[in-house]
Design a protein that fits this description.
heterodimer; A: 380 residues; alpha/beta; Rossmann fold; 8-stranded mixed sheet; B: alpha/beta; 50% helix; 16% strand
Chain lengths: 380, 338
Amino acid sequence: MSGPERLHVDDLLDDQDTGVVVCCGSGGVGKTTSAAALALRAAERGRQTVVLTIDPARRLAQALGLRELGNHPKRVRIAGWEPKGELWAMMLDMRRTFDDMVQAHAGPERAEQLLANPFYQTISTSFSGTQEYMAMEKLGQLVATGEWDLIIVDTPPSRSALDFLDAPQRLSAALDSRLLRMLSAPARASGRGIRKLVGTGFNLFAKAISTILGGQLLADASVFMQAFDSMFGGFRERATKTAELLRSPGTRFLVVASPEPDALREAGYFVDRLDGERMPLAGLVVNRTHPVLARKLTASRALAVAENIQNPQRDGDASVAGAVLRLHADRVEQSAREQRLLARFTRAHPVVAIAEVPALARDVHDLDGLREVGEHLCHP
Amino acid sequence: MTTPVPGSSVGWTEEIGRARLHVVSGKGGTGKTTVAAALGLALARGGRRVLLAEVEGRQGIAQIFDTEPLPYAEKRIASAPDGGELHAVHVDAEAALLDFLDMFYNLGFAGRTLRRMGAIEFATTLAPGLRDVLFTGKLMECVRRVDSHGRPAFDAVVLDAPPTGRVVKFLDVTKALSDLAKTGPIRGHADKVVKLVHSQDTVVHLVTLLEEMPVRETLDAVAELDGADLRPGAVIVNRVRPPRLPAPAIATAASGQVDAARMRDELTAAGLELDEMTLDGLVTETMEHAVRMQAEHTAREQLAEADLPALELPELTGGVDTGALYELADLLTEQGAR
């Protein structure tokens, strides 16, 4: 039986051609921690690194010196820590990224008009894909500065790992939509042609939609679209640029999962999708595995011996030998299950290289913890 | 098997038992779909009819019951012990919007044309709150529906809800509505939803693990629910591992003081000769276990701050299949869920 190929993370980080590493995966699998650990290691190995985090746990953010949303990278400086390269970190502020994007591309007057538009306020804060979109926008900006030779990106916590690939397209499609033009500018000639095509169904629908959404929202949307359209040549074009960036040779994807069926299933979808989109996959990181340390002792033998151990009290404290054997048996069983799940993943995706990171006994929220994760990632 | 959360003695209150809509939320990765499914089975026990609902998920319910993807129409998915029935439904925004429009406008087959044009996706994109209003509206309809004898069609509806970070926004229809029309049919529709989710008929259960981040999110969610005048139900602690070490040994082992020589003596006496490497492995495994036990203890103490009824479910090392769901459902019943 041939196992999966090992993912050589150090090679990935040391490769000067690697310019962007995107960490993706479903929620709750430790993406942010992985991204931060990789960035720390890359900085220690001499690279000018920036890590773009989306929603880090408070203590991890503090460890990186990110006390508030800055929306611009800050150098991570810690007394006594002198990496060969540099580590910068930032937390995404999606609203500010959107505002900055508008201000950078519109004249001051037009920008002001756009920022005050109620429709803009809705999509810049509550559209379900805005966070994903802005993460990619920010990535584009960081790449454009040329200040860092390695950018590590965490992706937004979403139900599904694929959301972040689809959101920019979805948002741009919605905003570029002919339907929006038709609904927002009903008198326009181009609208009439389609209307005839669809017939009365559309009229009913238009009526229903404006009843539900309100005429004002559609009017705001129309004003927004006109201002936006002339400025950027449409959202679609920007989304296309983002997709190009993700396809460019220096970008590598790391899919992150935990050894659970759901997370690995999502990882599988993502791997297939990247393949279909011709986006370069570096490999799969499996966080929080439970490798057996006392490998020569089987679970059944441990349990059989545990049955024979009495619990004598000696010097006032209880014997732990029986407990130790039982917890070892638990661990063997858990590890076997994890390896079965991973083997199943590898059968479906044989070419995907894998790195396992064992569960650390304590939560990771400081430099030492991140360094330990990095060690495990690179040296099993 | 289960250790109660300190400070909370009741696993399931009568108040929760009276609720009709059980919203199950939790941080990503805590197993909330599994818990929702087990709760559905537990509540259906004894001849009751329960509906298990998911909104725009990845068909998690179908996967867990090992069945084909769920349609928008409700279907019977499992039998509960003692004659109960569990039904399931997958609510998607498109079908719900067409459903809704049908109530007020006779769209007929034009609906299909609109679907082809992406009109539905478009409408729900324009007004993000609309999606949530449609979902909760459909759930309300299921809760309120009565059969020809005027009895409720379902004794309870269990929702596999969005994760803790989004659940309040999802349920807080009032807020979503401020972006939408102030009058008209959807207003009346939504007003009824608001009434249901803020009533005693609705409780929000929070699934967590005994780990720092999920516990923190749970506590944040409780505060957020309170702030939005929504009722937190029970905290369901999932994947609890059995404590193997006796309590006095935990602190010692966690601080790295495992007496390897004594362990070797005891194992040898029991007939188990181990080489140096295996013994070292056992010592490290024991230390790691002890540190985790300590972290779990802290997590339990923090959870107690929420002062909510708490239930515990064990880690299933064999994974969760349909059989295991019944096992979990039984455990919920034993802890009072009904």
